[in-house]
TrEMBL record:
This is Probable transcriptional regulator protein, GntR family. InterPro entries: GntR_C, TF_FadR/GntR_C, Tscrpt_reg_HTH_GntR, WH-like_DNA-bd_sf, WH_DNA-bd_sf. SMART domains: FCD (SM00895), HTH_GNTR (SM00345). It comes from Sulfitobacter indolifex HEL-45. Keywords: DNA-binding, Transcription, Transcription regulation. Residues 1-63 form the HTH gntR-type domain. It holds the Pfam family GntR.
Length: 221
């Protein structure tokens, strides 16, 4: 049911801003019970794709990028988003600690990883490994092995999301690629200047933006 609703949103049978049919109508249309419909709508709300308005029904807030289904099955969208949500909190904190504790060796590792990532971007390559190396270098700069251990243990899941986000970026205008690089530079600059709050905010912004770049939202329509 979730996949079917998401497909209809993707294909704009239910466009952004539009109100979805009632639970009763959806249940009849898809041949399922109303609890099944409620479960699908709840998941879509959790994903930030629909919004419920009291007394008015459910409305489409945003839809997946059309190119998304070229890279991943729609049913994996929720899992990718959950991984990004986890990263927002964990890596935001890691960046803050790195700003407090990093040394010159840590900065050198971060700079080297960034330069490698920049080179892959210039070559229009995916650069997933380079991206992960940079984020791992930041986590190591926090001088708390729990941060780096978590990222290493989730490397496969993180790479899946990065590969998706990067693939969509390559299909978009060049300005989007520069935007991604600028987000990374902002994090590194805050760490370099020993600004924990700024480092945390810029890292959280970067990962949130990466998550949101999988979607076309109301502001873009």
């Amino acid at each position: 049911m979730y996949d079917q609703l998401l497909t209809k949103i993707l294909e704009e049978e239910y466009p952004v801003h539009s109100r979805l049919p009632t639970e009763e109508m959806l249940a009849e249309s898809f041949g399922v019970s109303r609890p099944v419909v409620r479960g699908a709508l709840s998941r879509l709300r959790d994903d930030g794709i629909v919004q419920s308005r009291r007394g008015s029904g459910s409305y489409v807030l945003r839809r997946p990028d059309r190119e998304l289904i070229s890279f991943v099955p729609l049913e994996s969208v929720s899992d990718v988003q959950r991984c990004y949500e986890f990263r927002i909190d964990v890596e935001g904190a890691a960046a803050a600690w790195a700003a407090r504790r990093r040394d010159d060796e840590d900065l050198a590792a971060m700079d080297a990883a960034y330069l490698l990532m920049e080179q892959t971007y210039q070559q229009n390559a995916l650069g997933v490994d380079a991206d992960q190396s940079l984020h791992l270098a930041i986590a190591r700069g926090a001088k708390n092995p729990f941060f780096s251990s978590v990222l290493e243990s989730l490397s496969e899941q993180i790479a899946y999301g990065v590969r998706l986000s990067r693939s969509l970026t390559l299909l978009d205008a060049p300005v989007r690629q520069e935007l991604v690089l600028a987000e990374h530079r902002a994090v590194l600059e805050a760490i370099r200047l020993k600004q924990p709050d700024v480092a945390q905010a810029t890292m959280r912004h970067h990962i949130t933006a990466a998550k949101d770049r999988m979607f076309v939202d109301a502001q873009e329509d």
